């Protein structure tokens, strides 16, 4: 969907469709669309997934890519050609590996890693075991920062299913504009609540119908029903 489509919808809701009497100009609404995409991606990391092959630095400590909001998985090793898949990589608890091999950070670098360790408290860093030789390639899954929106004729880069939430965020920011004509704290709070609710409901329904929960592939089972599905 185009940015202009979201802004047109916002103008109808704001009763701001007369070009000669605009209270919100295109530039600020474009900025709020840009903010909205990032807000959605932070709240729902799965809204902006990217699966890619990356080169590891020498050693155990690694940095996530610059555009990474959240590392979701390290999937497998990849050969030096960047294409041929290799051994699977599994998540492991740091305390377990520390107990098994307290000196593992100083081990001999290898061209194949077996495990990765990730701490939510430090989202830009992860560790690999054994320590990697420089240039070792792995395939990762991450939530990436959505491409910046700078043009009203540009595209919303998230899937269309998130457009309603993006619109709610734009309305939230619009009603926060501090002028005698536009500021409306009650409406601002209502749209922020609507934004949060839409993303929460979608998460519940996604979980309810996930094949990881409902493996039979038909209607949700009792576990998925507890997450919002039906029986």
Structure characterization notes:
The chain is an alpha+beta fold and 231 residues long. It folds into two domains: 107 residues, no CATH class; 96 residues, no CATH class. Helices cover 33% and strands 21% of the residues. The strands form two sheets. A four-stranded antiparallel sheet has the order 1-8-3-4, with no helix packed on it. Strand 5, helix 3 and strand 6 form a beta-alpha-beta unit. The longest helix has 24 residues. It is elongated and about 70 Å long. 27% of the residues are buried.
Instruction: Give me the side-by-side strand order of the main sheet.
Output: 1-8-3-4
Whole-number total of structural domains: 2
N-C termini distance: 34 Å
Secondary-structure-derived class: alpha+beta
Biggest sheet character: 4 strands, antiparallel
The percentage of residues in β strands lies in 15-25%
| DSSP E strands, number | 8
* Order of SSEs: HHEEEEEHEEEHHH
Shape: elongated
Number of helices: 6
* Overall mean confidence score, pLDDT: 89
Low-confidence stretches: none
Write a brief caption for the model.
With 231 residues, this protein is an alpha+beta fold.
Offer a few descriptive terms.
elongated; 4-stranded antiparallel β-sheet; 6 helices; 231 residues; alpha+beta; 4-stranded mixed β-sheet; 21% strand
